[in-house]
């Protein structure tokens, strides 16, 4: 498969990429375009920017759905523009640098020298406009909503809603063709977040990886995310073993184990109270006998 556009609504596109089966987004209005995520490297971002220029010559703004490298390492190609995200620039720079080092090392280890070079050469562009809660972004004749999600696939997810076209860009809150990633996720909170986001019943839902789907597809995935949450809870309560949960996880055993591991990381077990040595037993409190106090004071004296 080569990279291609899918028109998912009036002047709204999803860009399907071969790399990581990723899906980026584009919303075009009368005065400005909004680019949703920019790809894995500066080179991928440059290819994306070139593809966008085949559709529109309008100035662009950029929105990051979250801080995972594949969603924002391509931004250098977009020059000076407004870049919207939930987490701040300092976080993006620090976490981005960490991810870049880790991926360069991983690619080298896998003998993918060219990929390592592209990753190392990608200049990181932190966001410069922060989204807290939700904002309506007027692109000229069309307003999109940038919405902070709360805890879900990560702790800084943001979705883009295009109400006039009935399209929701969901970032990695939903995935098609592969299980959702739990490595930095909040398994218990995630399904509720998706259910809330689907409450306006968008016609088209664009995932961060895989093909766009409809409302009912997204709703089915929300149900599966809820089942993962429930299985994690039942393991915690001792109703199920981890093996049982893994066997019945809706996204397969590996994904279920990843969710349980992440859940454990987020909720470390309460430390056992240390047994008290017999010799150090606390002596009983002393009995204090207070002197009787005479309240009958003769004020006439
Ligand atoms: Zn992600």
From TrEMBL:
InterPro entries: Metallo-B-lactamas, NDM-1-like, RibonucZ/Hydroxyglut_hydro. Pfam families: Lactamase_B (PF00753). Residues 21-209 form the Metallo-beta-lactamase domain. Residues 264-285 are annotated as: Disordered. It comes from the Bacteria. Residues 268-285 have a biased composition (Pro residues). Transmembrane segments: none annotated. This is Glyoxylase, beta-lactamase superfamily II. It comes from Glycomyces sambucus.
